[in-house]
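User: Can you fold this complex?
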Amino acid sequence: MSESGDIWVYLSASPLLHLSLTLSAFVVASALYNRLRRSPLLNPVLLSVVAIVALLHLTDTDYDRYFDGAKFVHFLLGPATVALAVPLYRQFERVRKSALAILVSLVCGSLTAAVSAISLAWLLGAHPVSIVSLAPKSVTAPVAMGISEQLGGLPSLTAVLVILTGIVGAMLGPAVLKLLCIEDPAAQGMAMGTASHGIGTARALQLGELAGAFAGLAMGLNALATALLLPLLWRLMF
Amino acid sequence: MLEYLTLILLCQLAGEIFVTRLQAPLPGPVVGMLLLFLFLLFRGSVPEALGRLSAGLLNHLSLLFVPAGVGVMVHFELLGDDFWPLATALVLSTLVTIAVTALVMAALNRTGSAKPLAGKVRDE
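Assistant: Here's the predicted assembly.
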């Protein structure tokens, strides 16, 4: 093999290549998103995921190899979630004043997420295993996978559906909020965090720190609420 | 900065241990968030370096979901025969959930002071 070929082999075995790929794809996607007036269809997460998947297909790279590099980015999800305590603390005055509203809207949102997902999937003729796997879709992935397993679903399918829910919420959520003339950042944050967990929270942070604080809180609370309510609801419905 | 990065990691670690030990239906990092929040409440203010660190992590929160997102596309075939029912239910349910939660919260919150405050994280 030629010398440049050797370098390629060496690079593709090191985490650097796929780490760079992940960052480059996101930087380009974000630039495109900002350039094209932040059209929701150009959501940077979706765009970079599609670009990376296409490239992995073209170069015949499997996901494990890609993840060897990308895991460094993935790892930061945990610390970033912990860091959500900072906006939450800064906005705590507002959060405390809205405690009751938070609780009521959380329960409404959590039940709406589960009931609407279950009944729509059932009406459209999905298999029972798929329906259970979809039910916890609005909850952050590790908890959703646990709930799915407990109710007899497929945790790996749930993980896929959870991420898709996050992307859909981040893409279309702000449009729904605009359509309904929701200008209260607390309501925007609660909605994004309850319906689409971390990815929705990331999008809410872009709307402002107050929306981000409520979204992070809603994400955590909805994990708890769904874990408690969904098994009861499931027994009630089936 | 380093001491706060350590603090964040320790909060997450404590959260993971707590969740595993008690088999609590919460992710470790969420419990870690609660612990860091309690630390801030106890301290009474956000140390400047911690503020910078958290802004650094949170300004690009979306990026951190890209590796998981790529995993989704690779496992897309798991949706199988149920692709259309699942996709339709997922999109509609997500939109309805956002609408319901936002409407309830906005209606109940109106009684309080609902003046939007200016956020300060990038974008918009």
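Chain A has a mean pLDDT of 92. The first helix of chain A runs from residue 3 to 13.
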